[in-house]
């Protein structure tokens, strides 16, 4: 009897809400792209942004309005590490680096993580800035 192994792949809803050309349904993100989108959404979500789950989020947008100094960068790094460790069980977080960009008045965030059951590290960069 032959065994069939299936590669486990992650999928999430594409929040750009692009229509599938053939079916007209909302397309989905699969593989590492779905996890990148999920990590980005967790970082950009504030507390009380999601109905019925007010505790979910990093509150990074609130931290961006604090004075720009190394202490604030440390708070932002801790908030990002905490939200990913608590709410993204599909990855193992290896490194979070937060640097203030004085020229652009925002924070450059660099994340390195590994999807569980894979050996390839993934690097994601975000630029967080105040909008108001």
Explain how this protein is built.
There is one protein chain. With 132 residues, the protein is of the alpha+beta class. The protein has a single domain, classed as Nuclear Transport Factor 2, Chain: A. The protein contains 3 helices and 5 strands; from the N terminus they run ββαααβββ. The strands form 2 sheets. A 3-stranded antiparallel beta sheet has the order 3-4-5, covered by helices on one side. Strand 4 and strand 5 (121-129) form a beta hairpin. The radius of gyration is 17 Å and the shape is globular.
- The top-level CATH class is Alpha Beta
Tell the overall outline: globular
Provide the CATH topology. Nuclear Transport Factor 2, Chain: A
Number of strands: 5
CATH architecture tag? Roll
The helix/strand order is EEHHHEEE
Portion of residues in beta strands equals 25-35%
Count of discrete domains: 1
Structural class: alpha+beta
Question: Strand order, biggest sheet?
Answer: 3-4-5
**Could you report the average pLDDT, rounded to the nearest whole number?**
88
Report on the biggest sheet: 3 strands, antiparallel
Helix content: 25-40%
By DSSP (H or I, 4+ residues per run), the number of helices equals 3
Low-confidence residue ranges: none
Q: For the terminal residues, how far apart are their CA atoms?
A: 63 Å
Radius of gyration: 17 Å
